[in-house]
Design goal:
By secondary structure, the chain is of the alpha+beta class. About 55% of the residues lie in helices and about 15% in strands.
């Protein structure tokens, strides 16, 4: 009798243990109304966020380049004008800025430059034909005035056939390092000196006259 009771008890225990094991190993039901496991929800949330960023062009994968430098420069000016409540739209002249940017393109990419060392600096004959020649005269002459106002050197221009001659000389002729800097920069580097282009662009777009420039027309 004792053995029968023991066998029955052992059978009940084994049955209970098996039922517990099956319950523990079974997966939760997944259906339209059932919650997703925590890891699956996190993965799907991340995928959804990436998809939304891609759809809206935001985040690390979104485009940032305007695709063309003159377009980007004009877009920047437009954003500044639109953010300024004092902008007088009756005076704004974005076409003037566009024409100036065309001049910059002509001078930077199409002008021919022949450089000659002179005592204390460099003389540069900047020439072209057609629109390039016009752009050279429109840009280089006022830029020489900007260079001449800088502390370290003096600059001047004179007309030559097809363009202008720009001469830049160190104010201290014995400053060998500065003379070497002028010659090393050459026309391509000197045309960038002064950091006045950006303020001039904004003034042009606003219909104002930057220093050394006429408010009328489309010249630098």
């Amino acid at each position: 009798m004792w053995r029968v009771a023991s066998v029955i008890g052992l059978g009940v225990a084994l049955a209970a243990s098996g039922a517990h094991t099956v319950f523990a190993q079974s997966s939760p039901a997944v259906g339209p109304g059932a919650p997703h496991p925590a890891t699956g929800a996190s993965d799907q949330s991340g995928e959804h966020a990436q998809h939304m960023r891609a759809m809206h062009g935001s985040g690390a994968g979104g485009p940032t380049m305007a695709g063309q430098d003159a377009f980007a420069a004009m877009a920047e000016i437009v954003r500044i004008l639109e953010a300024d409540p004092a902008t007088d739209w009756a005076k704004v002249d974005m076409e003037r800025l566009r024409q100036h940017l065309i001049d910059m393109n002509e001078v930077v990419l199409r002008a021919a430059v022949q450089s000659t060392p002179v005592p204390g600096g460099l003389a540069m004959d900047v020439t072209g034909v057609g629109r390039t020649e016009q752009a050279i005269r429109a840009m280089v002459v006022p830029h020489a005035g900007e260079l001449d106002r800088m502390a370290d050197w003096s600059a001047r221009t004179e007309p030559i056939p097809g363009g202008v001659r720009l001469t830049v000389i160190a104010k201290r002729a014995d400053d060998a390092r500065l003379v070497a800097r002028i010659r090393g920069l050459g026309f391509a580097g000197l045309i960038t000196e002064g950091a006045h282009h950006q303020p001039h662009h904004l003034a042009m777009a606003r219909g104002e006259a930057p220093a050394g420039h006429s408010p009328a027309g489309h010249s630098h």
